[in-house]
Amino acid sequence: MTTLPDRRLLLVHAHPDDESIGTGSTMAHYAADGAHVTLVTCTLGEEGEIHLPELAQLAAAEADQLGGFRIGELAAACAALGVTDHRFLGGAGRYRDSGMMGMVTNEHPRAFWAADLDEAAGQLLEVIREVRPQVVVTYDPNGFYGHPDHIQAHRVTMRAHELADAEGIAPDKVYWTALPRSVLDAGMSHFTESSDNPFAGIESVDDLPFGTPDDQIAARIDATEQHAAKEAAMRAHGTQIPATSWLYAIAGNFGAEFMGVEYFTLAVGEKGPGTGRYGWEDDLFAGIDAAAPTRVAAAMAGPR
To answer: What pLDDT digit, counting tens, does each position of 188-231 carry?
Structure first.
């Protein structure tokens, strides 16, 4: 028997580095606060662009060894965030990075985009049975910005929640990552002027594939005390995030505020107490009674 902390948070991300960019400070914040943080990554990110010339031969079109290399990068990132419970969905290499929408890689036999939904959700359900998280974090229906693996991660997570609900073990809340329109408006000039900008040429937030109206945001997690941990985790993903990245450029202008504050919409569950104009929560566990410790048996990994 293993005793897990009262508060348990599960995050489902598509590729190594997504966890650090989108939720790194939140993960570090809760890990440092004693919560049990579980990260499930759905692919190895085999189709990622390599920003280290000396490792260019690892690319999918060359030796096709990038995925294995990124396992090490992810381990280093999790160490920087203080996260000790990390799994790959179905095991490392079960699902392959599908590449961007419409690419021939979407059709690979192991492409996550083409994964059987119930099979993949069943693998995530096993994690839910074992950990019994009260809170789950993943992407919105568009995968935040339209990547097929992000969209599939959303679908798999929501289906796993349905399956868990049928067993009476569904997490209390499901959040989707988000960026408020007001934050995008404030940083747009810095974003468009930064180097290595994946949305070069876009001058209005209306043209970005993400951005949520402020009144639809449910939670604002101020983890500025963990901004250095997030940056260290991002730097661990050196093949994917070059030193000249727009992420670091914006961080140079906004510092801890950019690196340390992350936002979410609430997809499942009841919103807890909040503050400010829109009543944003400052805790993903707001409104959840997590006082009683839960004892989790290893046998819980199977159906009950």
So the answer is: 655 555 555 555 566 666 666 677 899 999 999 999 999 999 99
> What is the torsional sign of CA 208, 256, 19, 303?
negative
How high is the pLDDT of residue 195?
Answer: 53
| Prediction pTM value | 0.90
Pure H helices in the chain: 18-32, 66-81, 117-131, 148-166, 181-193, 227-236, 246-254, 256-260
> Average pLDDT over the chain, rounded to whole?
89
- Say whether pLDDT at 298 is over 60: no
The CATH code that applies to domain 2-301 is 3.40.50.10320
Q: Could you tell me which residues are annotated as the binding site?
A: 15, 18, 150
Look up residue 280 and give its DSSP letter. Answer: B
> For 33, phi and psi rounded to 5 degrees?
-85, 0
**Are 41 and 237 within 8 A, CB to CB?**
no
The domains of the chain are located at: 2-301
Q: Which residues are annotated as a binding site for Zn(2+)?
A: 15, 18, 150
pLDDT for 160-182, tens place per residue? 999 999 999 999 999 999 999 88
Between CA 175 and CA 269 the distance in angstroms is 9
* 37/226 Cα distance (integer angstroms): 15
How many residues comprise the chain? 304
Pair type for strands 219-222 and 261-268: antiparallel
CA distance 239 to 100: 17
Cα-to-chain-centroid distance, residue 49: 19
DSSP state of 154: H
